[in-house]
Amino acid sequence: MGYSGLSIIKDGVFGGKGRKPLWRDPAPKSRYDAIIIGGGGHGLATAYYLAREHGLTNIAVLEKGHIGSGNIGRNTTIVRANYFLPGNQEFYSHSLKLWEGMSQALNYNVMLSQRGVISLFHSDGQRDAFVRRGNAMINHGDDAILLDREGVRAHLPYLDFDTARFPIYGGLYHPRGGTARHDAVAWGYARAADQRGVDLIQNCEVTGIDIENGAVTGVQTTRGAIKARKVAIVTAGRSGQVAALAGMRLPVESHVLQAFVTEGLKPVIDHVVSFGMGHFYISQSDKGGLVFGGDLDFYASYAARGNLPMAEHVMEAAMTLMPMIGKARVLRSWGGIMDMTPDGSAIIDTTPTQGLFVDCGWCYGGFKAVPASGFALAHLMATGQPHATAAKFRLDRFRTGVGLMDEEGTGAQHNLH
Asked: Could you tell me the pTM of the whole model?
């Protein structure tokens, strides 16, 4: 089924009668050429690009729940390419370009809204750091505009500019950044992968990874054994647990990241706004809810729920930055499990086990990385060589210390990234 303006009118007139499910619900086959563990955004994108770019169709995506039930369906939807260090810079620049063509490529509206990202700074030192970052972005071909105090006020007049502790000095404006609809991203990639022959196997938890003579041969699941010579672990905050099934210990820690949504309000926040003196970021959804988040809960956990002290911390940052939202009622909150690396940058690489691949360690940046992550992992699985945009996302950098990418300059402590 194709989507168009005419199809929308037809659905409106006839109440969507005759519409079919977006993808099949097949039973798992006994053997595939490749298996992707994890039916989130990264796993679905990998399957899609394996099929579209490399012609591989005998692929299974195994998801222990339903498609889109993990972090891809619960995040703050921010898309941006405002990175500073080589390695991250070219990757996220490529990812933003893929975002810009995603709806047309998938024939599915992912509701990309390039409303702009404004990162505030509150000191002379922060200004200098943002000048360097902005220049690096421009030199790489991305967009960046340095705003002074009045420049920020022209875009964001509702902020508290004169708080005694954190006065606003200015901001770095990234106009091509913005948000996208997280659910639509999952559904769009799932539908497009299915149309190219990929089997999306839901309610199929992987319980073991079979290895013979140093090479992967398949997986054990709650729906039986499945053979494959290539297996990719793409399971976000559960990466460490799944890798342990293959006898691997990944250099990641899993932490909870909370996010919050308010009741629907009239349009008031046109951009994505990031607070420089507290890890706080906010935007407004198409339905009017204010979507915001802050720091991790700062302890390792697999619980998909957060703690009250961190919820209070995030609300304090919100009130410090924009007191106007103090009366908005928070409707819901949730906790996503983040797999944090020691340098805050991701891993897309082969492993010591032949045919076993890993895509993990996205820290805070998993959503905006979805298309480029899938593109790069598909390239690696199909050709055996890393894609140029992800060539520095090596697993062994944590063993050798060569090529570490500490984007935030916060050192080798997982939870600080």
From this structure: 0.95
